[in-house]
UniProtKB/TrEMBL annotation:
A Pfam family the protein falls into: 2-oxogl_dehyd_N
Main localization category: mitochondrion
Domain Transketolase-like pyrimidine-binding: 716-929
InterPro entries xref list: 2-oxogl_dehyd_N (IPR032106), 2oxoglutarate_DH_E1 (IPR011603), DH_E1 (IPR001017), KGD_C_sf (IPR042179), ODO-1/KGD_C (IPR031717), THDP-binding (IPR029061), Transketolase-like_Pyr-bd (IPR005475)
Entry keyword annotation includes Nucleotide-binding: no
Entry's family note: Belongs to the alpha-ketoglutarate dehydrogenase family.
GO biological process annotation, one example: tricarboxylic acid cycle
Enzyme Commission code: 1.2.4.2
Listed GO CC annotations: mitochondrion; oxoglutarate dehydrogenase complex
Cofactor requirements of the protein: Mg(2+); thiamine diphosphate
UniProt-annotated location(s): Mitochondrion
Name of this chain's protein: 2-oxoglutarate dehydrogenase, mitochondrial
């Protein structure tokens, strides 16, 4: 039936509605961008036509509406109901979606034709469907009742004359009917009786499986997690009955793969449903329809909907062998060490064959090295069976926990429990390759290791020139409770596609035993799946029943392939159970009686697989027995060998670390100064912008000033000093990387490491051009995501890979670093002691009281000092360069007050044969302070230059000075305020000494200064409250130095600073000034200070 011109509104509406269907599909499947392309390509000519067009609510998405408005201006409006006739040339968008819009919008459902008729009279016409369940009565939220009618009308038109409809619809109908239109017979029965409505109904059913099939999958091995099957998976919802099962349908769609691929022949409804059930509702639940990229969805659809290959017997034997290893490792250790905590894998033994499959597949795709992070659960099993740490070594650790023998017999650290230790080995793969696996040591703090793993992976990619990110890959394991509960998971996931943090995607495996310690999932997360957080990244999620080992290996293989194909994250969620308590000594029946009564009689996955193989004749019984005997034999042999096993020196030295020293091997400090010519060259490179570049005029001025500093050799400011340190390290072959929030410009607008061309937006980074043809990323400065925990963890992991690099993380303000406290406590301050892994990670924490209130004044210096492991009461034996003291300490805390000293301390990080983390209290107001300047000569290579742990009073050079009535020790920027007050008060008899390195404490230099002023009153001055800042760290050490110098005792030390306080600083500006002035005056005042009470 041809459409009459007089019914233009319906016709147009019909066209638009039908296009709307396609648009919505496009939008749903591939996202807004794809939908916009569709609109641009397919609708533009219609939108520009001078006629009224109605979008009946498909285009409800605000971005689509905004986009249409951009395209068509004010002709587009969005209304709740039609109140007036449509003016020609106007568009009307009205919402209709059932589950998208509030209830009151529902009244709009199905009203289009009626409403339009009332407004436009007989111009509006529609035909009644002859189908048993017309589309017009379907409740689907995107096929509106009227849409079906219009679509049918258009189909009839197309049947009468294919060229009468838009070419895109010609293809659409052709695909749906399997004919080219001209041979159609009345529009209804085309292939096996298929009409457009039928086609749409089948399409909707298929889509429902793709979207929600996982809800029906048999995921829980215990069968306790009873989930309601979504109504949309019921064919009856689309009007299908048993009578339809044998009807044939063609469901090919140009842009799809799998069941919807155009290559499909006519299929009966039964066979379509069968395929869908197999693909989506068996023991794997695929969640991927949230991915907004058509190619990725198609890639997955192809793998999911086309049946998995039947495994060859050899593959089955291999899986069985691997599962036997995974299972017997646990039972063997359980039997040998009945009372030991090992956080066994029982209930998820299929993880072992799964991981091996993953690694094999990754190796086949070109991966050469895998960095692994994982929690306690199953760690020993993974170490032994996957990473291939010698079993005898693991078994030996079950004993008394032998201290390994260091090179000189002492560097053994304080150690850690066996299920936290890291290691690395080369594992042979199925295809005969070798793949390097390193398991990163981790603390008990769940998920904290995740960013460390990706940082290390990124570093490996950098050092191996792995530009495609194919050679090095991260695999991170999680528990169900921690994956959904810990925020650092989200922080880590969000680094995955950032240019300077991307690792080409990680494979995540969740050992989802459906419990967290004693807490059930319903009390530990608000989302249906523990993996839902990953949907934010558009990562595919494969839920798999942990009892089905072949399914587990299949998804692990698919995950590796996905990662290597699309270089983005992917999640495997192994739904399993925990056979015992949280650990082996725990009683699970206390809290999960129902679950554990099922678990008690539940066979393990090996028994299930063995039964299946035997019953189906898939593997011979004697083959099975042979494999089992082999595994048990090896376990017994390793156990015997473990009895006399003495571990070698720790394997902490990877190739890059060869030659680096432990504390018992004294390292020499090299000079940190730089030859004047090099300084000039680097100085030039970092202060000159290309002639054609158009910087902001303020930046131009800054760069000109920097250039002057280098040229004149004086007045070098903080940012220039820092850039000189970075630049000179680069010339010496060291990689430099600075990351953190807004570090490129610098929070305080002082660094301007990257300059933006004001005309074309191009970016120039002078430090990227210090060397001729400098390699990309050799110098990296990068703004990070707004994360501290995640990003600091990342940089830590990065820093551990190669010592010939200066890796820095800067906090926006120092106190924001407390959201990364786990990384400081568990890794940076204690990692070397626990795991013998060194790092020279350098942390810049802006600190200083300048009236900005409680949250922007203090970097919580006291916390970092509290974690220092030197003895406050012992005066150490110090050699000239104090290197031994630095080698023995766990980390360094410094608060430098001159650009030159900052330069030297940064360079010192590299110019020694060991690595130590360094926490720097970074200045704020010193960045522009006129007195906080250095001469270029102070950066030069000379015997006088180098990092000064303590800067003695600049005005007092005598070896002994009886005239000084007070010596004030302080640290940081308060020095400049004290100096100013001293000048104001003409208090020449006060000496001020700056403790630049607070930890390790410069006992020797403090004692030297104490001796220099034998009559002086000893004062510690600080701007922080008494319970904060350096005071509590310095106080006992100052006492020890006084005793050593014969200058009195601890009680003689006086204090000039703020009183103890809960909040780090006042929020009232006047109060701040009053307090600050008061403490500085007290430190300089004529009369002696009172003793501390
Ligand atoms: C950050 C953190 N909080 C608390 C704990 C204490 N804890 C250890 S294991 C555990 C349960 C972990 O549950 P899940 O992530 O599901 O792993 P599972 O033990 O079940 O394998 C808890 C709460 C911890 N280790 N780390
Ligand atoms: Mg759990």
């Amino acid at each position: 039936m041809a459409c009459k011109m007089s019914s233009f509104l319906v016709r147009r509406t019909g066209v638009m509605t039908s296009i709307g269907v396609k648009l919505l599909l496009s939008y749903r499947n591939h996202g807004i961008d794809s939908a916009q392309v569709f609109i641009r390509e397919k609708l533009r000519h219609l939108l520009l036509a001078p006629c009224s067009l109605v979008f009946d609510g498909m285009l409800h998405h605000t971005r689509v509406i905004r986009f249409l408005r951009e395209l068509c201006g004010s002709r587009v409006s969005c209304v709740d109901a039609i109140h007036a006739p449509l003016a020609p040339g106007n568009f009307l968008l009205f919402p209709r979606g059932v589950d998208v819009f509030p209830k009151h919008h529902r009244i709009l459902q199905g009203f289009s034709v009626g409403a339009l008729r009332s407004l436009h009279g007989s111009k509006v016409s529609y035909s009644t469907s002859t189908q048993s369940v017309p589309l017009s009565r379907l409740k689907d939220n995107f096929i509106h009742g009227t849409s079906g009618n219009f679509l049918e009308e258009m189909q009839r038109q197309w049947e009468a004359d294919p060229n009468s409809v838009d070419p895109s619809w010609q293809i659409f109908f052709k695909n749906f009917t399997g004919t080219d239109g001209s041979q159609s017979s009345g529009g209804m029965s085309l292939v096996g009786g298929q009409s457009t409505q039928d086609g749409l109904r089948v399409l909707m059913l298929i889509r429902a499986y793709q979207v929600s099939g996982h809800m029906k999958a048999r995921l829980d091995p215990l069968n306790l997690d009873i989930r309601a099957v979504p109504a949309e998976l019921d064919p009856a919802s689309y009007g299908f009955s048993a009578a339809d099962l044998d009807k044939e349908f063609v469901v090919g769609v140009e842009t799809m793969t799998g069941i919807l691929g155009t290559g499909n022949k006519p299929q009966t409804l039964k066979s379509i449903i069968g395929r869908l059930e197999n693909a989506y509702c068996d023991t794997i639940g695929f969640e991927y329809m949230h991915i907004q990229d058509r190619d990725k969805c198609n890639w997955l659809r192809d793998k999911i909907e086309n049946q998995p290959v039947v495994l060859a017997p050899a593959r089955r034997a291999e899986i069985f062998d691997r599962l036997t290893w995974g299972t017997h490792f646990e039972s063997f250790t359980a039997q040998k060490w009945t009372a030991a905590k090992r956080f066994g894998l029982e209930g998820c033994e299929t993880l072992i064959p799964g991981m091996k499959e993953l690694i094999d597949a990754a190796a086949d795709a070109g991966v050469e090295s895998v960095v692994i992070g994982m929690p306690h659960r199953g760690r020993l099993n993974v170490l032994g069976n996957v990473v291939r740490k010698p079993l005898r070594h693991i078994f030996s650790e079950f004993g008394a926990g032998i201290k390994p023998v260091g090179e000189a017999g002492t560097y053994t650290g304080s150690g850690d429990v066996k299920y936290h230790l890291g290691t690395s080995f080369d594992r042979p793969t199925r295809s005969g390759k070798k793949i390097h696996l390193s398991l990163v040591a981790n603390p008990s703090h769940l998920e904290a290791v995740a960013p460390v793993v990706i940082g290390k992976t990124r570093a490996k990619q950098y050092y191996s020139n792995d530009k495609q990110r194919l050679k090095n890959m991260a695999v991170i394991m999680h528990g169900d409770g921690s994956f959904s509960g810990q925020g650092v998971v989200y922080e880590t996931l969000h680094l995955s596609d950032l240019p300077n943090y991307c690792t080409g995607g990680s494979v995540h495996i969740v050992v989802n035993n459906q419990v967290a310690f004693t807490t059930d999932p319903k009390f530990s997360r608000s989302s249906p799946y523990c993996t839902d957080v990953a949907k934010a990244l558009c990562a595919p999620i494969f839920h798999v029943n942990g009892d089905d080992v072949e399914a587990v290996t299949r998804v692990c293989d698919l995950a590796a392939k996905w990662r290597c194909q699309f270089l983005s994250d992917v999640i495997v969620d192994i739904v399993c159970y925990r056979r015992f308590g949280h650990n082996e000594i725990d009683e699970p029946f206390f809290t999960q009686p129902t679950m554990y009564s099922v678990i008690k009689s539940h066979p393990n996955s090996l028994a299930i697989y063995e039964k299946k193989l035997i019953e189906n004749g898939l593997l011979a019984k004697d083959e099975i027995d042979r494999l089992k005997a082999k595994v048990m034999g090896t376990l017994n042999e390793e156990f015997e060998s473990s009895k006399n096993y003495v571990p070698n020196k720790r394997d902490w030295l990877s190739a890059f670390w060869a030659g680096f020293k432990g504390p018992e091997q004294l390292s020499k400090l090299r000079n940190t100064g730089v030859k004047s010519a090099v300084l000039k060259d680097v100085g030039q490179a970092i202060t000159v912008l290309p002639a054609t570049f158009n910087p902001h005029k303020a930046i131009k001025r800054i760069y000109e000033q920097r250039s002057q500093m280098i040229e004149k050799g004086e007045g070098v400011d903080w940012a220039t000093g820092e850039a000189l340190a970075f630049g000179t390290l680069l010339t010496e072959g060291n990689h430099v990387r600075l990351s953190g929030q807004d570090v490129e410009r610098g929070t305080f607008s002082h660094r301007h490491a990257k300059v933006h061309d004001q005309k074309n937006g191009q970016i120039y980074c002078p430090l990227e051009h210090v060397l001729k043809s400098q390699a990309p990323d050799f110098f990296t400065v990068s703004n990070s995501s707004l994360s501290e925990f995640g990003v600091l963890g990342f940089e830590l992991g990065y820093s551990m890979e190669n010592p010939n690099s200066l890796i820095l993380w800067e906090a926006q303000f120092g106190d924001f670093s407390n959201t990364a406290q786990v990384i400081f406590d568990q890794f940076v301050s204690s990692g070397e002691a626990k795991w013998l892994r060194q790092t020279g990670l350098t942390v810049l924490l802006p600190h200083g009281y300048d009236g900005q209130g409680p949250e922007h004044s203090s970097a919580r210096l006291e916390r970092y000092l509290q974690m220092c492991d030197d003895n406050p009461f012992k005066f150490p034996v110090m050699e000239a360069d104090s290197t031994k003291q630095s080698q023995e300490i766990n980390w360094q805390v410094v608060n430098t007050t001159t650009p030159a000293n900052y330069f030297h301390v940064l360079r010192r990080q590299i110019h020694r044969d060991f690595r130590k983390p360094m926490i720097i209290m970074a200045p704020k107001n010193l960045l522009r302070h006129q007195k906080c300047r250095s001469k270029l000569s102070e950066f030069e290579d000379s015997s006088e230059n180098g990092f000064q742990r303590l800067i003695k009073d600049v005005g007092n050079q005598k070896d002994k000075d009886d005239s000084i009535r007070r010596v004030v020790f302080c640290t940081g920027k308060i020095y400049y305020e004290l100096d100013e007050e001293r000048e104001r008060a003409t208090a020449k008899d006060v000496a001020i000494c700056r403790v630049e390195q607070i930890c390790p404490f410069p006992f020797d230099l403090v004692a030297r200064e104490l001796k220099r002023y034998p009559k002086a009153e000893v004062v510690w001055c600080q701007e922080e409250p008494m319970n904060m800042g350096a005071f509590l760290y310095v106080f006992p050490r100052l006492g020890t130095a006084m005793k050593n110098a014969n200058r009195g005792k601890l009680e003689d030390v006086k204090y000039a600073g703020r009183s103890a306080s809960a909040s780090p600083a006042t929020g009232f500006g006047d109060q701040h000034t009053h307090e600050q002035k008061g403490l500085v005056e007290r430190a300089i005042q004529k009369s002696p200070l009172a003793l501390i009470e």
